[in-house]
Amino acid sequence: MFMFKKGEGLVRATTAQKGFTLLELLIVITVLAILSVVLIFVLNPTEILAKSRDTQRISDLSTLKTAIAIYMSTVSGPQLDGTSGTVNDKCDGGTAANEELWLSINTTAGGGESVTDATPPTGWTQAATSWEQNASTTGATLVDGTGWIPVNLGAITGGSPISNLPLDPTNDLSTTTGSDTSTAAVLNNGALMYRYACKKTPASFEIDSRLESGSYGVGGSDDRSAKDGGNNSNLFEMGTGLTILPGTNDF
Q1: Three-state secondary structure call for residue 71
Q2: What would the pLDDT profile of 216-247 be if each residue is shown by its tens digit?
């Protein structure tokens, strides 16, 4: 309350203070809640994160392709399978019992996730228990041929063009199993990990990844697996030989 003079008399004035009513507050809260739901639906943070991981996968495979291609073009007698004896004997076209596939995830019992269904790709005769080479629990990213890809990039004149071998952002055997090392998982095309294989003649290689987003994944609006020039519609393939691994069968 305050007073002021007007002419010779005094006039008393009052100021009234008014806040939000309970109904008005409820309306504001309801509107904000609706806007939040609409925003989440429009932005779809789950899809944004999945697409970000897919972008990383595409970039990783491109980086690996470039690095291995440099190795093949500059090193005499390039060994794509890391063998010290017969060159590329573990590649497709080598000794049948030695053919192998390399994985970016460790699936050795006790050292990582285990595999209960590791059937070799069609045409490969290696035993089901030994046809896949798993990443080590330590040193999986090394570029000296002991990492998950058995190519010694350090043999390149001037050294390896990359400091570490990239791993899948999720690097998990199954989208449903998770990373529980005590639970056996099935090795399948849906596993979020990288795969590497090579061919003896002509010397070539293939690196595969599963893309998970609604944009880049299988059946997505921008399905990259259908545009990579490979033979497997479930995997994104990159390398110099995109038919080394089969277009069917889980691996």
Answers
A1: helix
A2: 998 999 999 999 999 999 899 999 999 988 88
Question: Where along the chain do its domains lie?
Answer: 53-239
Give backbone dihedrals phi and psi of 240, rounded to 5 degrees, phi first. -110, 0
Q: Which residues of the chain have pLDDT under 70?
A: 1-18, 40-42, 84-85, 96-97, 107-131, 174-187, 249-250
User: What is the C-alpha to C-alpha distance for residues 144 and 150, in angstroms, rounded to an integer?
Assistant: 8
Residues 50-78 pLDDT 10s? 999 999 999 999 999 999 999 999 999 89
Q: What is the dihedral of CA 201, 205, 103, 145, to 10 degrees?
A: 90
Residue 57 tokens, joined: 């996968």
For residue 146, give the 3-state DSSP assignment: coil
Cis omega (within 30 of 0) for bond into 202: yes
Query: pTM here?
Result: 0.77
Nearest C-alpha neighbor of 168 from the set 191, 139, 151, 146: 191
CA dist 45 → 41, 53, 133, 175, 190 (Å): 8, 12, 35, 18, 21
CA-nearest of 70, 75, 124, 79 to 101 is: 124
**What does the alpha-carbon distance between residue 228 and residue 124 come to, in Å, rounded to a whole number?**
24
